[in-house]
Amino acid sequence: MNIRMLCLTGVLSLAGLSTFPAYADDATTRSARVYDTYCAQCHGANRDGNGINSTAMAVKPRDHTDTKGMGDTPDEELRKAIKSGGGAVNKSVLMPRWDGVLSDAEIDGLVSYLRVVSKSGSK
Amino acid sequence: MRSLSVVFLALLAGLGMADTAMAAGGADVLQQQCSSCHALTKPADASLDRLWERKGPDLYYAGVKFNREWLEAWLQNPTTIRPGGVMYAKAIKASADKTADTIDTGKLTPHVKLGKADSAAAADALMKLGADLNLVQKGAFKNGSPGPMAKMLFSKLRGCSSCHSAKGGDGGRSGPELGDAGSRLQPDFMVAYINNPQKFDPHIWMPTLGLTDADVQKLTGYLLTLKHTEAQ
């Protein structure tokens, strides 16, 4: 039973992952795990702003798959928003700060990961 | 006295649960029936992987977190606290049509139910856990009035309701429901947890928000007013 459940979970998560851009390397896989833990609750399993919490929020979480919008946002702003929260980049405070939870290296990893997810180049 | 024991027996028979605590102590109940899912001592493994693999929330600081009365009642009649289970990310069903993700409740299992004697014994044993760990400062909650802004802080200004529901089930679903926080949680624990959730659970997905003490006091005061009553 347990093993069956485990396999099922494995298959499901593989199926889920396949909707995202191909995982190029370990760093991307690690950052995807961090994203699934902390960001997907609001930004969604599909990374498009439709997390389980999104219906309870007055401001919609950013769509991280939006190539144009994400492409127009420089790395520095992404880093600052994740580290110090939406308020630090003149966006909604409903985007929380993560500097008390994530290391600088993990935050840098997320910035690179967002470029993969949005298929936008680093700025 | 006789009618009491009749009620007790009827309860046992009706719910099909066994009481083993009469002879065994609460610590044994925890060890035998709970430790497969719950950490009863501080886990040595503080990795992100553990957060994904554990089967229940940590209980090693239960004695500084819960009110005993709530524990004893909940263990006999457990209700949902975390809408997405112990790790929401494992219960999410990704949306296929640009609406919000949903929780696949089929992935969640109902909590084990204890009989009256076992839950009293388990509650006693749980209340002994964590006092020596220095996680919660006694008197941290200063017991001031929450003030008229407290509810707004929770639902709008500090974004707590993105993840928590407080009343009537509206609110986010990645964090525990707090509609019963006043009955369930100790005020000093709430102050400590809101200030630094990672002190309790190194990778938990509630952010450390860097709130002022004034905000934390008001939020805790507000949460203390939330209680499920018979009437609801």
Summarize the structure in words.
The complex is a heterodimer of chains A (123) and B (232). With 123 residues, chain A is mainly α. Chain A has a single domain, classed as Cytochrome Bc1 Complex, Chain D, domain 2, CATH 1.10.760.10. In chain A, 51% of the residues lie in helices and 0% in strands. Chain A is built from six helices and no strands. Chain A has helices at 2-17, 26-38, 40-43, 67-71, 75-84, 104-118. Chain A starts with a helix and ends in a 5-residue tail after the last helix. Residues 1-22 of chain A have low confidence and may be disordered. By secondary structure, chain B is mostly helical. Chain B folds into two domains: 19-78 and 113-135, Cytochrome c-like domain (Cytochrome Bc1 Complex, Chain D, domain 2, Orthogonal Bundle); 136-232, Cytochrome Bc1 Complex, Chain D, domain 2. Chain B has helices spanning 2-15, 26-34, 48-53, 62-65, 68-76, 116-126, 150-157, 181-184, 187-195, 197-200, 213-224; strands at residues 92-93, 102-103. Chain B has a two-stranded antiparallel ribbon with strand order 1-2. In chain B, helix 9 (187-195) packs across helix 11. The two termini of chain B are 31 Å apart. The relative contact order of chain B is 0.14. The model of chain B is unreliable at 6-16 (pLDDT under 50). Chains A and B meet through helix 2 and helix 3 of A and helix 3, strand 1 and strand 2 of B. Chain A: Residues 50-77 are annotated as: Disordered.
Mean residue pLDDT of chain A: 86
Major sheet strand order of chain B: 1-2
The largest interface is:
A-B, 31 and 38 residues
Q: Span from first to last CA of chain A?
A: 48 Å
Number of domains of chain A: 1
Q: Can you summarize this structure?
A:
Chain A: One of its GO terms (molecular function) is metal ion binding. The complex is a heterodimer of chains A (123) and B (232). Chain A has 123 residues and is mainly alpha-helical.
